[in-house]
Amino acid sequence: xxxLVESGGxxxxxxxxxxxxxxxxxxxxxxxxxxxxxQAPGKQREVVARISSDGDTVYADSVKGRFxxxxxxxxxxxxxxxxxxxxxxxxxxxxADPTVVLTNSWGQGTxxxxxS
Length: 116
Fold this sequence. Notes:
Elements: E1 4-7, E2 10-12, E3 18-24, E4 33-39, E5 46-52, E6 57-59, E7 67-72, E8 77-82, E9 91-96, H1 98-103, E10 110-114
Parallel strand pairs: 2-10
Antiparallel strand pairs: 1-3, 3-8, 4-5, 4-9, 5-6, 7-8, 9-10
């Protein structure tokens, strides 16, 4: 099982940007899909974006045009570039592969707070 560790969160003003990183403990070359999820206080965890091993991407409607997911298999890392951030983007962000989701073995996540 690949261990995934999120980083890069922080406090940012509305309209600002952040780049989140998801570092894997070993090669993710053969990991078909990696996804970013987020969970806001009092809300269910939701998928934000996912990327396949071929680089195909899918985004939630709420982040289309603002967020970009990418992967660097040479660095075993998946990124989430977040631009034009809004207060409603405030949440704890998690990355996951299908095993994490199936086994409910989520990491610590990284807090993103968008506030003036």
